[in-house]
Amino acid sequence: MCRIGHLYSVAQVSKLETGGHEGVEIVNNEPFDTTRGRSPPYELKANGQTFTEGQYTYKVCHLAEKLPRHVRILAPRAEIELMEVSWNAFPYVRTVITNVIVVVVVEVVVVVVVVVVVVVVVVVVVVVVEVVATTPIKFFFFL
């Protein structure tokens, strides 16, 4: 009974956090059984017990809209994703989470370069105007 309740609660939380293009995308959800050839890449052991069957899930959590606003402003085209691979052999669960941040790096670099160039040009113009304004103008006429 606890196994079913655990799976149900995980599914409900995933469903509540999903909306639009954000939330949890379940890519793969299937039973695994090490005695029938479907097994995790490593043995599932805990407290001297080996677990041979359960539920395998592969999820992608899309988190871009969950980021603070200032982060979204700095990297507007960022796709922040968590990849979750889980072997649920209740009560033992092994979950591996990897974080992938895909940012359109070229756009960010171009924006930074443009801002730096604009700042340099403004500083040069201000310095030149200041020098010209403080230097007396002398006219030399050669006859």
UniProtKB/TrEMBL annotation:
One of its GO terms (molecular function) is phosphatidylcholine transporter activity. It comes from Elysia marginata. The chain crosses the membrane at residues 100-133. The keyword Transmembrane helix applies. Residues 3-100 form the Phosphatidylinositol transfer protein N-terminal domain. The lineage of its organism: Eukaryota, Metazoa, Spiralia, Lophotrochozoa, Mollusca. Keywords: Membrane, Transmembrane, Transmembrane helix. This is Phosphatidylinositol transfer protein. One of its GO terms (cellular component) is cytoplasm. InterPro entries: PI_transfer, PI_transfer_N, START-like_dom_sf. Gene3D superfamilies: 3.30.530.20. Coiled coil: none annotated.
